Amino acid sequence: MTRVAVVTGGTRGIGHAISIALKNKGYRVAANYAGNDAAAQQFQVETGIPVYKWNVGDYDACAKGVAEITKALGPIDVLVNNAGITRDAMLHKMTPEQWREVISVDLDSVFNMSRLVIDSMRARSFGRIINISSINGRKGQMGQTNYSAAKAGMHGFTKALAFEGAAKGITVNTIAPGYINTEMVAAVPKEVLESKILPQIPVGRLGTVEEIARAVAFLAADEAGFITGACLDVNGGHYIAV
Ligand code: CAA
Q1: In a domain, 22, yes or no
Q2: Is any atom of ligand 1 closer than 6 Å to the C-beta of 160?
Q3: Least C-beta-crowded within 10 Å: which of 30, 53, 60, 236?
Q4: Neighbour count for residue 45 (Cβ, 10 Å)
Q5: Do the domain assignments include residue 129?
Q6: What CATH number is attached to the domain comprising 134?
């Protein structure tokens, strides 16, 4: 059976690698994106993966997107909630807009998308929901009260929904990437990255997008049915949790 996977924020960064990894594993993949049409078109041409544009922070837009994908590819078996943004600022400089944007795209989206696929997953007694959180939702990070709150919120959501889905063949897990070589990390001031962040990574380098995609493919597999409510840290030893 060919399973259908949706990757939010699936045309750039970590999502780009996740979409490709799932396609290579035989999934029918749909990649959502929000803004960068040029990158999305290039991605579609290069990978053959169809792209769908909507804002994952908007419930009604998600409903339309999920309906469109379901019609084109079939019911969604694997949902990867990957879309995320940063609006870094110390709290004493953070605007309400910076707070709301991050909570909307990084956390409301997880409710929106999961809510819209859960009925169909329950009806078919199978589902995989994989939430791409962050090391900074685990350990906190200066300049990221908004992002750390959203990413920590994902962990609570994951654990609660894991209970709800367990008897229905639906697993729900988070992956918490560390600092990965993406545009998002490239936006961190160079001096901060080199003097404060890199020295804290025992493996001694940034992670690659493929290293996260590999973890997603692992959790998405039919054979991963006994892993639920878990958080998989992929961070080069930067944060080692018990
Ligand atoms: N770790 C340790 N110290 C940090 C730091 C970090 N990540 N980021 C900033 N600092 C320190 C600065 O070096 C500075 O220290 P000094 O006063 O001793 O010089 C102090 O915090 C204040 O910083 P700034 O003077 O730069 O203050 P600012 O208001 O101009 O900017 C900031 C503050 C927004 C936090 C900015 O420094 C910044 O963007 N830092 C990076 C934050 C970060 O790590 N974001 C992660 C983005 S990647 C991501 O989110 C993906 C993921 O999931 C991992």
Answers
A1: yes
A2: no
A3: 60
A4: 9
A5: yes
A6: 3.40.50.720
